[in-house]
Amino acid sequence: MKKKIALVTGGFTGESVVSLKSAAVVETQIDRERYDVYKIIIEKENWFYAAEDGTPSLVDLNDFSIQVDGKKVTFDGVFNILHGSPGEDGKLAGYFDMVGLPYTTCDALTSAITMNKGYTKAIVQDIEGLEVANSLQLFKNSPKNTQRVIDELTLPYFVKPNNGGSSIGMSKVKSEGEVQEALDKAFAEDNQVLIEEFVSGREFSIGMYMVNGEVIVLPATEIVSSKEFFDFEAKYTAGVTEEITPGRMSEEEVNRVREVARKVYLKLNCKGAVRMDYFLEKETGKIFFIEINTVPGQTETSLISQQVRAIGKTVKEFYTEIIEEMWKQ
Questions:
Q1: From the candidates 15, 88, 196, 203, which is the catalytic residue?
Q2: Residue 167 sits in which domain range?
């Protein structure tokens, strides 16, 4: 008998549009000979099953069940593709833990920590071979904090919402006169903001996932953007960014990055597929940590799919591995 999988998408943030696009791709690639798939859309007002005929069926939050053709449907597991809150920040994971449902992504604690860029940096900064840029984490948008940024950090730097994703609310600041506008933009998205000094280097993104207790590190993708940094438009608009998979690295760099990525995955106690973004500093070749995404995008332009295909695996096979692994945890 086929197992029933809830494909969870939507969300409470601006990333919901990306989540819905990711779900549309995942929905077509999951092995239907193995699994029956039900797309569940989560919004602030309602959680509902989106039936093929367009008829919504509200989710019973007591046990995360739905009614289909008058019959109760419960699930064997959850494929979580909900970017941002509540799917990537631990809230949804905590709920699934309470109702006893396995899911494909990190647990509640890891999800909550990794959603906070500043806290994540504090945990990974002692990993051998990994560097973190000088930074400030702010909890209030005030003239005093604006002055702290100017006094304590060296231009240029990136200003970003500390708990956001998809580079929404992010700015590159080149002069003191741009600081307040960048802080206002970031604080409009989050009540915590991270400011990081600029690292001159080539940008990469690398996927990792676990199968049978072994961390599989995928080939890294090199990001060559026509924009100044890999922002929302660059990530999700075809043609704005050149994505080279595998990225242009020496064998020594490939091996070094692979080992660091494996350590990051284990140190943060990750589960399912995650993606780490990093710089290779131009002058030194050092690996500088940018951030980790615990629910990476699965749209047509996403990086994980490119990396999976680069090792000769189909996306369908990859999803099957991710789904099967959640029942072993």
A1: 15
A2: 135-197
CATH number of the CATH domain containing 286: 3.30.470.20
- Looking at the fold, whether 247 and 273 belong to one and the same domain comes out as yes
Q: For residue range 224-251, list pLDDT tens digits in order.
A: 976 555 444 444 455 567 899 999 999 9
- Quick one: 255 and 214 in the same domain? yes
135 assigned to active site: no
Predicted local distance difference test score (pLDDT) of residue 234: 47
Q: Give the CATH number of the domain where residue 174 resides.
A: 3.30.1490.20
Sheet holding 135-138, edge to edge: 135-138, 193-197, 157-161, 171-173
* Six token digits for residue 259: 């080992």
Exactly one of 16, 22, 166, 305 is catalytic; name it.
166
**122 and 237, same domain (yes or no):** yes
Distance between CA atoms of residues 183 and 163, nearest Å? 14
Q: How far is CA 147 from the centre of its chain?
A: 31
Is 166 in the active site?
yes
The pTM (predicted TM-score) of the whole model is 0.89
DSSP 220: P
> pLDDT tens-digit profile of 172-208?
999 999 999 999 999 998 899 999 999 999 999 999 9
Known catalytic residue at 302:
yes
